[in-house]
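lol ok so funny story. i was supposed to be doing the assay writeup but got distracted and ended up predicting the structure for this chain instead. priorities right. anyway since i did it might as well share w the group, maybe its usefull for someone
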Amino acid sequence: MKNNTRVSNAIIRRLPRYRRYLAELRNQGVKKISSNELSELIGYTASQIRQDLNTFGGFGQQGYGYSVEHLYTEINKILGLDREYKTVVVGVGHLGQAITNHILHHKFGFSIVGLFDVNPTVVGLAINGVQVQHSSELEQYVRDNDIDIGIICCGRENAQEVADTLIRGGVKGLWNFAPIDLDIPDNIAIEDVHLSESLHTLSFLISSKEQENRK
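and the output, tada:
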């Protein structure tokens, strides 16, 4: 596999889509597939698919196409999904609980081992067998348990403090659902999920299509 330290974000964000379709093909018992067949399934051009995969070494054989099992395994490795990540969720309101239940149900390779909140009505409760602890215990817990990822589901007014606490504890990455851009060191990976911005994008797309239909 080629060095992937300088791969564009656009390619990286297409890889989970490849993985999802390959997982479905595996479940259907499909053994091999061509870039043209992948193109029909996924919607990207065959040329785009080949270019994306060639970034990491190609994985295909001329006249054969791609082994579904091999390509699925290699994309898992590229995405870092050939290991398990120990994860904590901070903020166990409706969103935090929904994300916790989703991850625990689908078992993507992310193991939620800790839940944290300051609300006395939820501290002490168990969600899918994981007990909610008070956020004052967060930093020590992260440090003692070698946590990889912190998922931030608290309000924007507390998000930076929570991020700082997680980083001091030693997390390697943050999944941020708070509607704020966090100030974090360059050595920490972060993925921001701003739900309102996604809805605003949808609003724009609806408006654009309505204008097209009027023409």
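The two ends are 49 Å apart (CA to CA). The chain has eight helices and ten strands.
back to the writeup now i swear
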